[in-house]
């Protein structure tokens, strides 16, 4: 099976409100379309995570984030791009219409312009940014391979996208306005 078939299948599942697991820059992630409240709530229940924490959105390009974040004057996409070796998620002001299930108790949304080829292809195929949160129960280490992921989460996930994770580990989270690092990335 070529990579494009799993990508197309995963995009179709997400467009129908499903939840997938997929490789990212550092770990496997759980994902769905951010405008699907039911899918987001499923991910939060699988993880045992509070909705108040907010979620990261990944995108293939800055255009996919229109309507989700407000890009401050003078900031361009190049500043926000990450690499496989050093994934960085940025906190940006949330657009007024961003639902609570994405931003949580915050006035910001964490975003990452993904450098991972599978994650990027998923965003393009779905025509949307994706929710991206580590594939784990809160407080446990995230899964780094499909075998472990399937064993731990089995039928709770609608589709497991094949592929390899990068070596970057969890993304660093930075506040764009202050430059402050809120969560260090993996060393």
Written account of the structure:
With 187 residues, the chain is α/β, with parallel strands linked by helices. The chain has one domain: DHBP synthase (Alpha-Beta Complex). 26% of the residues lie in helices and 20% in strands. It contains six helices and nine strands; from the N terminus they run αββαβαβαβαβαβββ. It has a nine-stranded mixed beta sheet with strand order 7-1-2-6-3-5-4-8-9, sandwiched between helices. A hairpin with a 5-residue loop joins β8 and β9 (181-183). α1 packs across α5 (117-126). The chain starts with a helix and ends with a strand.
What name does the CATH topology carry?
A: DHBP synthase
**What is the string of SSEs from the N terminus onward?**
HEEHEHEHEHEHEEE
CATH first level: Alpha Beta
Level-2 CATH architecture: Alpha-Beta Complex
State the share of residues found in helices, binned by percent. Answer: 25-40%
* Gyration radius, in Å: 15 Å
- What is the tally of beta strands? 9
Structural class: alpha/beta
> Regions with pLDDT < 50 over 5+ consecutive residues?
none
The dominant shape is globular
